[in-house]
Design goal:
Among the domains are: 198 residues, Serine Threonine Protein Phosphatase 5, Tetratricopeptide repeat (Alpha Horseshoe), CATH 1.25.40.890; 80 residues, no CATH class. 43% of the residues lie in helices and 7% in strands. The chain is built from 18 helices and 10 strands. The strands form 5 sheets. The chain has a two-stranded antiparallel ribbon with strand order 1-2. A two-stranded antiparallel sheet has the order 3-7. A two-stranded antiparallel sheet has the order 4-5. Helix 6 runs antiparallel to helix 7. The protein is globular, with a radius of gyration of 23 Å. The relative contact order is 0.13. InterPro entries: SusD-like_N, SusD_RagB_dom, TPR-like_helical_dom_sf. Keywords: Cell outer membrane, Membrane, Signal. Its main location: membrane. This is SusD family protein.
Length: 492
């Protein structure tokens, strides 16, 4: 039997669930519960673990989940900004308050483990992993297949979230995919405390195993909200994982399955100029409906990005599209209209991301515009990319044209592309389509490209940096080195 675990949220839930069973309260210890006792309770009542899973999803948008009080610490979307800036596609073009200025845009944190940004990324994803392990252990462990259908769905979601976090850790903390390189500690149950780094192959094996299991467990799951992971989201995450590993045939298969499921449709020309603020948009696969109850304000993705909110963007910290990338957008492309083209706020995404009020400084400081994590356009682009990499240019052109038909009046030029030229166009279109959505960094590494910053950046202008340059990868944080005896600054 696994060792005792201190009372957590499970205990509160269990007391509620079993409050009418006096003999249960009399027989069990008042201070500790074993994971076996939790598992026994969960096998009869899924609510025992449902609250913890809901808490995992909340970590994705709550502030301070990276362990700091910084105004760049607000969950997944915070690290989407980190990645977009490090990739070079997002420029900090005006800096008044200093967020992202030295640590991220000057690439200082990625070469100095004492910078807090390293700690934020590390703590956020490992916090989700530990919470996912709590759910997985409570439902019987890594090899379990719960009897209750609802518990199968809960287990599938927890495994998918654990895999998602490990995948992002591999991207942020390894320069390029190398199965034999020791990169991260692996924790797959609550018994794990401090551990040494293991080879990337072990991390990726767990990620793949988790996602394949999640896909099976989530078969038939009809989620209540887009905050939750369903089977298509698990498949999409796995497609990203396989893409990073170079397993492009499997990427093509998975993305085709997601596209052909018909669950989502591509955003229209009107929708891509509509503010990206409504999770109910069909093109959004995964996101969260932010409400007044969520209680997000300035410390949020909108607080950093939106000119039409009470935000840093409005008061003088401009996040803009890289000027060279903007110049690569054809004038007749609807996405050109996503960016402002005059004054000190030039090339900010004033036409892409905005609160519906569209009032500078924000009529209301409370954030209720929604967060996007993933949309179906990503699957079309991944499908096109994977098809092109496997020599299936016809499928690649078909998938790319399906997306571009919603963006350009004439996409016939795609028919003349093949080989490297086709791959280059897919890569460019992905950067344009998904600008500011946190996918540029993943694409840069997956496609082994370089980045050259345009003139509107505040630093490193004109410098070309390769995808595997150490400046584009985070450092294991100082706190981990101090607190984990199996990791030292000698084996980073």
């Amino acid at each position: 039997m696994k060792k005792l675990i201190k009372i957590t949220l499970f205990v509160v839930t269990l007391v509620i669930a079993y409050s009418c069973q006096d003999d249960f309260l009399e027989k069990e210890p008042s201070e500790f519960l074993t994971t076996q006792q939790i598992a026994d309770a969960a096998s009869k009542n899924p609510d025992v673990v449902k609250g913890t899973l809901t808490g995992i999803y909340a970590l994705q948008f709550e502030t301070g989940t990276g362990g700091t009080t910084g105004h760049d610490d607000f969950g997944q979307k915070g690290y989407d900004i980190f990645g977009d800036m490090i990739s070079g596609d997002m420029a900090l073009s005006v800096s008044t308050y200093g967020w992202y200025r030295a640590s991220i845009t000057e690439l200082q944190c990625t070469t100095d483990f004492t910078f807090t940004d390293n700690y934020q990324v590390w703590r956020y994803y490992y916090r989700i992993i530990r919470s996912a392990n709590t759910v997985i252990d409570a439902l019987g462990g890594n090899e379990a297949i719960p009897e209750l259908q609802e518990n199968k769905y809960l287990l599938g979601q927890a495994k998918a979230m654990r895999a998602h976090s490990y995948f992002y850790l591999t991207q942020y903390f390894q320069k390029s995919y190398n199965p034999s390189e020791e990169i991260l500690p692996l924790y797959d149950d609550l018994l794990d405390q401090n551990s040494a780094k293991v080879p990337a192959s072990e991390i990726y094996t767990l990620i793949e195993t988790d996602l394949l299991s999640a896909i099976s467990l989530l078969d038939g799951f009809g989620r209540a909200t887009k905050t939750e992971v369903n089977q298509n989201i698990a498949k999409a995450i796995l497609a990203y994982v396989y893409g990073a590993m170079g397993r492009d045939g499997e990427v093509k298969t998975l993305t085709s399955q997601v596209i052909n499921s018909g669950e989502h449709t591509l955003m229209s020309a009107d929708e891509v100029l509509g503010g990206f603020n409504d999770v109910n948009t069909s093109g959004w696969m995964w996101g969260v409906d932010l409400t007044a109850d969520t209680a997000l304000y300035l410390v949020s993705w909108w607080g950093q990005m939106d000119f039409f909110s009470y935000s840093y963007a409005a008061f003088g910290d401009a996040k803009s599209i890289d000027s060279d990338l903007y110049d690569a957008i054809p004038d007749n492309d609807v996405r050109k209209g996503q960016f402002y083209t005059a004054g000190s706020f030039e090339l900010m995404p004033i036409g892409k991301f905005y609160d519906d009020d569209r009032q500078r400084y924000g009529a209301a400081q409370l954030v209720t515009a929604d967060y996007i994590y993933m949309r179906i356009a990503e699957m079309y682009l991944l499908n096109a990319e994977a098809a092109a990499k496997t020599g299936d240019d016809g499928t690649a052109r078909t998938s790319l044209k399906a997306l571009l038909t919603e963006r350009l009046p004439d996409v016939s030029y795609v028919d003349g592309l093949s080989g490297q030229a086709l791959l280059d166009e897919i890569y460019l279109q992905g950067r344009i389509e998904l600008w500011g959505e946190g996918k540029a960094y993943l694409s840069l590494k997956r496609n082994k490209r370089s980045t050259t910053r345009g003139a509107n950046h505040l630093s490193l202008v004109g410098e070309t940096i390769q995808y595997d340059d150490e400046r584009l990868t985070f450092e294991i944080p100082e706190s981990e080195i101090q607190n984990n005896p199996f990791i030292s600054d000698q084996n980073l």
